[in-house]
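ARCHIVE CARD
Drawer: 12
Card no.: 0347
Subject: one protein chain, sequence and derived structure
Cross-reference: see card 0346
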Amino acid sequence: MIQININEAKARLSKYTKMVKAGETVILCDRNKPFAEIRPLDRRGNAPRVFGLSKGMFNLGPEFFHADAEIEKMFYGE
């Protein structure tokens, strides 16, 4: 982890972006006081989600699909 001031980041942005791409975390400071963090994105979440992973883990009764009477009144009136 490296700490840099805003002026340093502006002057050498490409250098610090390369460091972040390599896995380094950069802390941005304003007058030597940290205020932000630049870090690589977590790439584990890029895989497409598979549907149906919880199939068979729980059952929904038929009442799940019927609207509550109070909520129906809110939408449709009396």
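Annotation on reverse: DSSP finds three helices and three strands in the chain. Residues 24 and 67 are 51 Å apart (CA to CA).
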